[in-house]
Amino acid sequence: MIRRNPPTARDFESPLAKGRTPPGPEQERSYRAVSTFITLELARHKAIELRLGDFVAELEVPAAVERHPDAEGHVDLENTTPEQLLGYVVQVHRAQG
Q1: Peptide bond preceding 6: is omega within 30 degrees of 0, i.e. cis?
Q2: Which of 32, 59, 64, 82 could disulfide-pair with 88, CB 3.0 to 4.6 Å?
């Protein structure tokens, strides 16, 4: 989810990079990661539900990027920079499709 179109590297910062503190040690890994979703539909739904932005960036992420998926379609991307993630953008969609 992104706030503007075109996106900027700031849109792809981790919660930790944005100054947020994890509520506990078990959340530290996810606070260092960038949150994504498996499908455009799921990303749109979350963007609207959680008011995370007016746009959704569709990414083409190389296989070498470390991923941590969960059963609900959420995927944390790790060991990448905001600038790299910005470079993976292939299309920007309105959250309200």
Answers
A1: yes
A2: 59
Q: Report pLDDT for 10.
A: 96
Phi-psi region of 4 (alpha: psi -120 to 50; beta: other; left: phi over 0): beta
Kindly tell me the burial class for residue 17, based on how many C-beta atoms sit within 10 Å of its own C-beta (0-12, 13-18, 19 or more). Answer: middle
User: What is the per-residue burial (b if ≥16 Cβ within 10 Å, else e) of 63-73?
Assistant: eebeeeeeeee
In what helix (H) or strand (E) does residue 74 lie, and over which residues does it extend?
A: strand 74-78
Q: Supply the mean pLDDT for the chain.
A: 96
